[in-house]
Design brief:
Distance between the termini: 37 Å
Largest sheet: 7 strands, mixed
CATH architecture of the largest domain: 3-Layer(aba) Sandwich
Strand order of the largest sheet: 4-12-11-10-7-5-6
Number of domains: 2
Structural class: alpha/beta
Strand content: 15-25%
Number of strands: 16
Shape: globular
Number of helices: 14
Bound molecules: pyridoxal-5'-phosphate
CATH superfamily of the largest domain: Type I PLP-dependent aspartate aminotransferase-like (Major domain)
Length: 435
């Protein structure tokens, strides 16, 4: 009863994200009462395995005692203070630790990923302007790239469903070929294909570097593209090419940061440092909204001046929120204290072995990077994604396929028995959903 009432009130009062609200005439919302580990519970006690980490944010499970305790402790001291003209312990500590972990610094905070993407684009443009390079005003990104939904971030995003409607509002940007290894030709290696794509980037910048401020990219995995994975050599080459042509490299690690690809940050696998790094999603373990842009001393120094207008005057009300920073600090503590990256390697190896149980089904491009798994389902059903989503929910599984791509991006606390269950349920779903 309570359940039905909440559904009705939500549909009346809440405009849900990324949703044609009319679909809820036939597809019920799921009201969640509580969470524990990888599980979400509704009001009837039915549970759902959160195999997408609640849109890729939850790293260490719902109701995590350590993150919760850190927030409670901070709550008794200071919930928030404006960060212009003021500072506080959690934001300083977090900035110092992120700097030590990334080799970048001068942390600039916001509350969501799209804002971080916007900040990096504005900073890059403003850097070149402060240096007198007024013509460097264009951005380039990858085909099928995703950087958020606000107008600036959407301008460098290349997902038709999100972008086309708003095209008249957006600044044109240019997309480079994606090194997505699903696109390799027969006999070609993922590495060779990535190098081909990098050659296109090079010839583009050879011609257009004078007008280009930055290249923004999702390192190693293009999430919203359907977990497109590519060889790290592309990042290495992109770094060299951007250096050669004086174009900033922006690493959008919003989805892939914090261990998702197997290293703490994806850029580490190419041994490169971006000029800007955007972080969000997992940064607070999925507890509170927080994002950050880190950059180089060189960029920072170009803004440091007696002139106010040469400074970066961007701001958000909740910039550097103390509670969110305390959640992020607790998240970093867990990485350190539990040797999470090593534990994840063991889990990934187990999962990879068990995933072989799916290979006799009509799927292709079974792939894995770190704690992300994906495969493409061979079906002509244009409604596959919604039908699979709904069928999965009935089985107590939260999966949100992107087109024909089914992916797993579970919280790192997932246990072996839960992985087994996830794969077995997915196997049954594929058998019943794919004709
Ligand atoms: C989710 C995401 C964003 C946007 O973050 P929001 O918090 O949803 O605004 C940007 N870039 C990438 C790579 C993402 O996955």
């Amino acid at each position: 009863m309570q359940n039905n009432d909440l559904l009705k009130r939500s549909l009346h009062a809440v405009w849900h994200p990324c949703t044609q609200m009319k679909v809820h005439e036939t597809m019920p919302l799921i009201p969640i009462q509580r969470g524990e580990g990888v599980w979400l519970y509704d009001f009837d006690g039915k549970c759902y395995l959160d195999a997408v980490s609640s849109w890729w944010v939850n790293l260490f499970g719902h109701n995590n005692p350590r993150i919760k305790a850190a927030i409670k402790l901070q709550l008794d001291k200071l919930e928030h203070v404006m960060l212009a003209g003021f500072t506080h312990e959690p934001v300083v500590q977090l900035s110092e630790r992120l700097s030590a972990l990334t080799g970048l610094g001068h942390c600039f905070y916001a509350s969501d990923g799209a804002s971080a993407a916007e900040i990096s684009l504005k900073m890059s443009f403003h850097y070149w302007r402060n240096l007198g390079h007024d013509k460097k005003i264009q951005f380039i990104s990858l085909q099928n790239g995703y950087h958020g939904e606000t107008l600036g971030a959407l301008s460098v995003t290349d997902v038709a469903l999100f972008k086309d409607t708003y095209a008249p509002l957006l600044r044109p940007s240019v997309q480079m070929p994606s090194p997505d290894w699903r696109l390799v030709e027969a006999g070609e290696s993922a590495e060779a294909y990535a190098l081909c794509c990098a050659a296109v980037l090079e010839s583009y910048l050879a011609q257009h570097h004078g007008a280009t401020a930055a290249f923004i990219i999702e390192p190693l995995v293009q999430g919203a593209a359907g977990m497109a994975m590519y060889d790290a050599i592309y990042l290495k080459r992109a770094r060299e090419i951007c250096d050669r042509y004086q174009v900033h490299l922006i690493a959008d690690e919003i989805a892939v940061g914090f261990g998702r690809t197997g290293t703490l940050f994806a850029c580490e696998q190419a041994a490169i440092k971006a000029d800007f790094m955007c972080l969000s999603k997992g940064i607070t373990g999925g507890y509170l909204p927080l994002s950050v842009v880190l950059t180089t001393d060189q960029v920072y120094q170009a803004f440091y001046d007696d002139s106010v207008a040469r400074g970066f005057l961007h701001s958000h009300s909740y910039t550097g929120n103390a509670l969110a920073c305390s959640a992020a600090l607790a998240t970093l503590d867990i990485f350190e204290q539990d040797d999470v990256l090593h534990g994840n390697q063991v889990k990934a190896a187990y999962m990879n072995a068990e995933m072989q149980a799916l290979t006799d089904l009509p799927i292709k491009y079974l792939r894995n990077t770190g704690m992300i798994w994906a495969f493409d389902v061979q079906t002509g059903d244009t409604n596959f994604s919604r039908q699979f989503y709904q069928a999965a929910l009935q089985k107590g599984l939260l999966l949100r396929p992107i087109g024909n791509t089914v992916y797993f991006m579970p919280p790192y606390v997932i246990a072996e028995a839960e992985m087994d269950w996830l794969i077995e349920q997915t196997r049954e779903l594929l058998i019943s959903c794919v004709h």
